[in-house]
Amino acid sequence: MKAREITLTALFAALTAIGAQISIPLGEVPITLQVLFVLLSGLILGARLGFMSQAIYVLMGALGLPVFAGFKGGLPIIYGPTGGYIIAFPLAALMTGFIAMRKESIYGYAIASLSGVLIIYLLGWLRLGFFLGRDFEKAFILGIAPFILVDSLKGVVAVLIADRVRKAVRFSV
To answer: What is the Cα–Cα distance from 105 to 154, expressed in whole angstroms?
Structure first.
């Protein structure tokens, strides 16, 4: 990896950690800015580096560094009710970057962001459902429904930011 790639990867891992601390408690699953930075990592860095940035973020948290919401860290958080969302971050960045790099336009970025959010929702919903004793309806009500509007807004913001950044900087990652 080049120094620029290492720096950008570390930057997005750090931004995701910071985004986790900007949190509004809402039951088991808080509203944070993590999703925004997960989407941006894929849109701006592409599939490979976006994935790596989020994998590093998850690894830092798994090792106990306080990078998850509420300055928490460790395997119990990943195994807990929000673990599915966290585990989905690298995959969401990968898919977002994969689609965005093939359709470099606002429309392509929007599809890429939607796919990233859907991956986060799917894995988060499954883990929360199992955590709630296989009550997937309750998991949907608690872990997805309240976030649809907020995450749609994050997706729009990510698309607009990524479009501006990619036009201004002309990344070659």
So the answer is: 17
Q: What is the mean pLDDT of the chain?
A: 94
- What type of residue is 159? V
pTM: 0.93
What count of Cα atoms within 13 Å lies in the side-chain half-sphere of residue 10? 7
Q: Nearest-CA neighbor of 65 among 48, 78, 46, 52?
A: 78
Give the amino acid at 166.
R
d(CA 28, CA 143) in angstroms, rounded, equals 8
Share of the chain above pLDDT 70, in %: 97
- Secondary structure, 3-state, the chain: CCHHHHHHHHHHHHHHHHHHHCEECCCCCCEECHHHHHHHHHHHHHHHHHHHHHHHHHHHHHCCCCCECCCECCHHHHHCCCHHHHHHHHHHHHHHHHHHHHCCCHHHHHHHHHHHHHHHHHHHHHHHHHHCCCCHHHHHHHHCHHHHHHHHHHHHHHHHHHHHHHHHHCCCC
